[in-house]
Amino acid sequence: MTAPLYLSDLALASCLGLDRAAHLAALLADAPPGRFTPWPGGRTLVGALPAPLPPLPAALAGFDCRNNRLLWQLAGQILPALTGAAARFGPDRVAVVIGTSTGGIAEGEAALAAYLAEGRWPAGYHYRQQELGSGAEMLARGLGLAGPALAVATACSSGGKAFAAARRLIRLGLADAALVGGADTLCAMTIAGFSALEAVSATACRPFSRDRDGITIGEGGALFLLGPDPAPVALLGIGESSDAYHVSAPDPSGRGAALAMRRALDDAGLDPAAIGYLNLHGTATRLNDAMEGRAVATLFDPPPPCGSTKGLTGHTLGAAGAIEAGLAWLTLHPDWNPGRLLPLHRWDGAADPDIPPLDLVGPGRTLAAGAAVMSSSFAFGGSNCALILGEGR
């Protein structure tokens, strides 16, 4: 039997705020959905971070970009835990695994615009700033960690699949603990790409609503310390699948999504009835929500209490799996949520009759004693991931 792994600390940032308290308050309060603002020159809203991010330390200036500034800010939130892990296991035994899909693309966009206007690249710009792996390397160097450092880039499942990669490193004996999570920041390429797919909404997204019309893109990130030391929240199971149905559209049957969830349950040794809350991927696109509803109906009878938190944070793309695992962590943690309140599902209340009925969470619902939480992430190309978190010790 493999040794259990625990999520002993959490850093969190999104349009809701730059700390855990701001997220918990929004998660449980019966408040209007989203803190979204217009994207310049566009016809959509975005969930931008509510405060500026300071530059990286001088020693890390070669890595400077918005994504890496966010990762550095997040690492600072859990620095004592990271320092303690390095001291306990040794710096070479702590891995860094980061899920992302944008890297430093915004800096590349600005540099290209300057080049086209002036005929030369801006001083200090280097393409390494937008490499997907630069965030993991930056954190390892800045924190003095010498274990494996890598990035996972599987579009919108990146932040979830980072946990699978980190756990594999630990189980293979290549690390004893891992700094794991994800981060993605806003850039014009992402907005333009999803706009070209006609997948963005002009208003705050409404997951699973009858009149939903697309996603609201956000930015943010989450970092955890994953390791063997007992903590109140445990990583119980992970399930992955790849249905490769289409480059951008999900398999309408939901088979691949259901398989990932089934594998997570099997990995955790749990029956579907053990899931007390399901954090849905819930992007508010016509195709994703319909597919996901069918996948849930395939696996759960009746469906557990569930909801999408993207009505609060927006769809943070490669960071979504990590941020939503962070929201699951807050839901389970006895110090942060002693009343065991479940996250509210923000929508307009008008159910889509073409989606199998879901038990979408309203005010005052609580997590049953001993119940686990599942969080799902589904990506372009049919890259699927489900995480199960539960009570630790």
From TrEMBL:
InterPro entries: Beta-ketoacyl_synthase (IPR000794), Ketoacyl_synth_AS (IPR018201), Ketoacyl_synth_C (IPR014031), Ketoacyl_synth_N (IPR014030), PKS_Beta-ketoAc_synthase_dom (IPR020841), Thiolase-like (IPR016039). Keywords: Acyltransferase, Ligase, Transferase. Its EC number is 2.3.1.179. Residues 1-391 form the Ketosynthase family 3 (KS3) domain. One of its GO terms (molecular function) is 3-oxoacyl-[acyl-carrier-protein] synthase activity. CDD domains: KAS_I_II (cd00834). Belongs to the thiolase-like superfamily. Beta-ketoacyl-ACP synthases family. This is Beta-ketoacyl-ACP synthase.
